[in-house]
Amino acid sequence: QVQLVESGGGLVQPGGSLKLSCAASGRIFSIYTMGWYRQAPGKQRELVATITGAGSTNYAYTVKGRFAISRDDRENTVYLQMNDLKPEDTAVYYCYRTQEQTAYWGQGTQVTVSS
């Protein structure tokens, strides 16, 4: 089993920044993909960004150039730096990790972009 603990959400004004963290613990393997999805009220959960254990990254076109995903394998932690936030970025952000063909999810952290 793998446990994921997210932190860093909150309320920010448009144009502001937030940094999310997701720490993994448990049965950790070096071959993995971690990332973030988000779900806004009334909408489906959508991919935000992913990163593999080899360092390959992928971004949704709506956040490319504004968000940056990174990892610290010593701490089994993934980060999502979010800059130039927009009201449409408001959502619950969920961390996930896949390894050994199994997906694990965090509880989610609320990000609200509002003036």
- How far apart, in Å, are the first and last alpha carbons? 40 Å
The radius of gyration over CA amounts to 13 Å
The total count of strands amounts to 11
Oligomer: single chain
The average pLDDT score comes to 95
Main sheet: strands, sense, barrel = 7 strands, mixed
Uncertain runs: none
Verbal overview:
The chain has 115 residues and is mainly beta. The protein has no helices and 11 strands. It has strands at residues 2-7, 10-12, 18-26, 33-39, 46-52, 57-59, 67-72, 77-82, 91-99, 102-105, 109-113. The strands form 2 sheets. Strands 2, 4, 5, 6, 9, 10 and 11 form a 7-stranded mixed sheet that branches. A hairpin with a 4-residue loop joins strand 7 (67-72) and strand 8 (77-82).
Give a brief rundown of this model:
The chain has 115 residues and is mostly beta strands.
Topology summary:
Elements: E1 2-7, E2 10-12, E3 18-26, E4 33-39, E5 46-52, E6 57-59, E7 67-72, E8 77-82, E9 91-99, E10 102-105, E11 109-113
Parallel strand pairs: 2-11
Antiparallel strand pairs: 1-3, 3-8, 4-5, 4-9, 5-6, 7-8, 9-10, 9-11
